Predict the 3D structure of the following.
Amino acid sequence: MVVIPYLLVVFVGLWVGWVANIVAQRLPSKNLDKPLFGPLHCVRSGERLRWYDTLPIFGYLSQRGVCRYCKKRLPLRFPLLETAMALSFALTWSLYEKQPITYGFNIFYISVLITIGVIDWKHRLIFPVMLYLTGLVAIVASLVTGSHPDNLMPDGLGSSLLGAAFGGVVFYLIYWLALAIYRIRALGYGDVLLAIMIGLVLGFPRTASALFMGAILGGFVALAYLLVRRKKRRDFIPYGTTLCLGVVLILMFGDTVWRWGPFLYVADLLNLLFTIVFKLINQLFGNYV
């Protein structure tokens, strides 16, 4: 039946979301004695949880969102992250069900990007080890998956490396420009490394669309913060989170997600510009790109 694969990927997505919650909760912890995947405890009271309290979504619902031990409200982030991961697995399957290898690589990227985004949103941290691992997987993917005329993945190692160079240079320039204007670090080196990793994952010129989409989402988030007066102009905005969200949307929906409304004309101009640049580079370096 057609519905069975969707049930399977949703089930897997729920458990991947469960793992992402543990990583996002424990990896930034300053208590280095706590193992990453040791016994689970209540994040409020520290009481050790029963096994059924840790099940994805069910554990939260069975306690009605309140710890059965300390009676404090549990973070809504836990069921939301698990649900978002399950939905993203199902939506991605609807696009790549006939290409299981491409699907496997893309859900790996989505899982890591969502986890990075949650950590950056909550702790203002981007851990390089997660970026290095994902970048290595992206390089392997570019070597083993061959050409992709449908543009579902980068077309070879040259495209991935060019995307990484583009993302790194753009964000490195933004880093120093923001430092010169605001006299504070508006971006961190973690954001530069994240842009390089995005380039390896998406290749060129799709990296340009992802960075553009991430910038648009970051602008909306910054505007929303200013409107509710929760942030000032010089306060930290989690741009790493919006970048990750932009990449996830492009992995699931392709270029359609950023060719919407008034952005269509900007997208067409960017696409034309980067297509010309890519063709020039291709003529210079031949089969290497």
In short: DSSP finds ten helices and no strands in the chain.
